[in-house]
Amino acid sequence: MPIDTGEVPPDKSDFDVIVVGGGPGGSAAAAYNSLNGCKVLLIEKGVWPRDKVCGDAVGGKSLSHVEELGVLPMIQATPYYQVDSILFGSANGSEVRVMLPKDSYEEKGLMSGYALPRVQFDYMMFKRASEIVKENGGSVIQGFTVKEVLSKGSGPSSRITGVTGKFGGGRSDNPMMTFSSTVTIGAGGYNCPVSRKITELYDEPHKDDHHFCGGYREYWENVDGLEGSEGQIEIHFIDEVLPGYFWLFPVKEGVVNVGIGMLISEQRKQKGMKKSLKKIQKWVIEEHPRFSGRFKDAKLVEGSEKGWQLPFGSPRKEAPSFQPRRGAMAGAMTVGDAASLVDPFSGEGIGNALLSGKLTSLHFDKGRHSEGFTQEDAERYMVDLWNELGGELSNSKKLQSMMKWKRLTNWFVNKASKKEEIGTMMSEMIASKETQKSLWSPWFLFKTLVLP
Questions:
Q1: What is the pLDDT, as a whole number, of residue 192?
Q2: How many domains are contained in the chain?
């Protein structure tokens, strides 16, 4: 059903916080800042319900936030797929099933992981955020396209002051409207206007194909081996997709999100059929000896074929500023995809989006920042964000690089399928940052992978 977001605020209204983008990161930022006593304007370009192309798997990291914001009961009352494990497959056919650390989540009354269509998850996040924003004196608008991010000053000495835009997009005759704020939070995805404005003012790159992934997704019904409402999700590193991967993520009973992800820089090296992720996926589904049989009686959900881009949070070589790229400045912060926080190995970004959304509320205080959100405040936010996520994002970049080597991937998955300790290690890596760090210890790798 449509979401009633109430009255549109008058032109030239002033807010403590403006959030551009109503996805999970933007909804979280708007909700947390509202709960922190701020008058918030939450802007969404689309009109609900709206789809968001994604793998749809949501890791355990996000659950504390959806519970804290009151969204978890909404999820549990709707159809979803309970994820208890991840199956990794290699090019030579070896497979290892890694169980998620269910006990550690159940102790907190949470699920270990789940998957559901983003049209469903984002709807609930935005609906709950809208309620919180309005309860705390703010406003929410849908169908509003930001045309310009406003700033005062020039270059790095600038300060972002708000946004200008209009309802109905570029073809509309609706008048332009301007809204101002102490801080503007960019949550508009990989091409967020706030994120682009920040890098533009600092004359720094916004997009790097070595850290951007192209993705393609379809929904299928009745895929063999993925029946029921609880079980595994699958990630396959196969010849036709390397150095990317092919995934099978059930989202509810009988429906599976099927897709491919590949670095744009690697995709551009491919020739012929491999230039199109859609064509690669069609071949895998129809002709690959390991998968064609599983789709024999499956049916494509018409209209679900969509592609998109993901900005990875992998560390850049000789980065011009903060890792993974400049994501804040005087008067502005960015979250989620707009801050380039997608995990470069798993492709999961919702948990990092929610975490960064909450972090903005810990760095902005309307009383303390009554004279403005300064460059020093912005730098503290970027440093804290990288301190929080940098370790796991760097580790994931190493794992991503490893997956480019087919023989190494085959050997590792084959070893893991035969040695219980490796499966346990991989399971603990999902839940423990300390275990992730140990992965890069040469002695740990030698005794785990090499010794019998």
A1: 97
A2: 3
